[in-house]
Amino acid sequence: EVQLVQSGAEVKKPGESLKISCKGSGYSFTSYWIGWVRQMPGKGLEWMGIIYPRDSDTRYSPSFQGQVTISADKSISTAYLQWSSLKASDTAMYYCARQSSTTRPFDYWGQGTLVTVSS
Amino acid sequence: QSVLMQPPAVSGAPGQRVTISCTGSSSNIGAGYDVHWYQQLPGTAPKLLMYGNYNRPSGVPDRFSGSKSGTSASLAITGLQAEDEADYYCQSYDSSLSGSVFGGGTKLTVL
Question: Which terminus of chain B, N or C, has fewer Cβ atoms within 10 Å?
Answer without folding.
Answer: N
